[in-house]
TrEMBL record:
Name of the protein described by the UniProt record: CCE_0567 family metalloprotein
Entry similarity comment: Belongs to the UPF0437 family.
Keyword terms, alphabetized: Coiled coil, Nitrogen fixation
Regions that span the bilayer: none
Pfam families xref list: Rop-like
Annotated coiled-coil segments of the chain: 4-31
Organism of this sequence: Novosphingobium mangrovi (ex Huang et al. 2023)
Database matches in InterPro entries: Helix_hairpin_bin_sf, Put_N_fixation
Length: 67
């Protein structure tokens, strides 16, 4: 598998992880104030997931530009 294909596969996994984290936060918000103690941890997980996703997208863009 080429580097581009590998990065695209990683992007797909990171995207799914980010979407799941976002949905977890959404679900948590609908149940407030129940679970309020979990909001910050879940929000941090969302931020981390999207940071990783954006970094991988930038990596793929740079690799494609170099090709």
């Amino acid at each position: 598998m080429s580097d581009v294909e590998t990065l695209k596969a990683e992007l797909k996994k990171l995207s799914a992880k980010a979407m799941q984290a976002k949905m977890d936060l959404h679900d948590l918000s609908e149940e407030l104030p129940v679970g309020v103690e979990n909001v910050m941890a879940t929000a941090e997980r969302v931020c981390s997931a999207y940071d990783a996703l954006n970094a991988k997208r930038a990596e793929l863009k740079a690799l494609e530009a170099a090709s």
